[in-house]
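Thread: Newbie trying to understand structure tokens

Hi all, I'm a second-year student working on a class project, and my supervisor (Dr. K.) asked me to get a predicted structure for one chain before our next meeting. I've only ever worked with sequences, so writing a 3D structure as a token string is new to me. If someone could post the tokens and maybe explain what I'm looking at, I'd be very grateful. Here's the chain:
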Amino acid sequence: MKKLTTNLKQIAATDKLIFVFMAGLLISASLLIWQAVLSVHPSNLRIWYRYASFGENYYNESWYYMIAFLVFGVVLAFLNNLIAVRIYSQKGRGATLLFLGLSIFSAILGLIVLSHVVGINQELI
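---
Reply by user tm_fold:
Sure, no problem. This is what the structure looks like when written as tokens:
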């Protein structure tokens, strides 16, 4: 753990672009976590979600289905930044930028999916 903090300090001091990508990942994953926290209401016994296998079929599921988005955001925010520090020390700058870019894309995709899942409930009411 001490080596990871040393590597993180080294990245912050020397490579500003990677540090900006890490901050961007933390911010986008935090937005995903925040949106998931605000949209999960334990009083909702069932939530609507879309199953797009054949046309537009709507199904409902238990409210704790939405907690998966919260866990996904936490994993993106913390574990992917730690993995990025490890990749930077072993593989270098290019692989780290690719990994962080894909992680940010995953967080944005999670935000889009979560907003659609939450929006389905408003469409059907």
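A couple of things are worth pointing out once you decode it. The chain has one domain: 2-124. The mean pLDDT is 80. Feel free to ask follow-ups in this thread.
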